[in-house]
Write a structure and sequence with these properties.
mainly alpha
């Protein structure tokens, strides 16, 4: 159980449902971190496009998606997180 309650995927809030739909289209699922961010819809709406640019190739990024994913995995490993 997380210390911060996650927003349910079947929320009644239309704005959060659109946010979850966008996350699903971009990532194929709604990560738990996005469900926690949904507690602050304005922050979540600003972070989703930023995250899309940072994780994908091109869009102004200098690193490949492969390198970015390796950084994510290494950071998770160093911090003892199950990826």
């Amino acid at each position: 159980m997380s210390r911060i309650e996650m927003v349910d995927l079947d929320t009644d809030n239309a704005e959060i449902r659109r946010y979850f739909k966008g996350a699903t289209e971009m990532l194929g699922r709604v990560p738990n971190s996005y469900r926690i961010l949904a507690r602050s819809p304005l922050t979540a709406k600003m972070l989703l496009p930023f995250n899309a640019v940072m994780q994908r190739e091109a869009a102004g990024s200098l690193l490949s998606s492969r390198i970015k994913e390796m950084v994510i995995i290494k950071t998770s490993h160093v911090n003892g997180c199950a990826y």
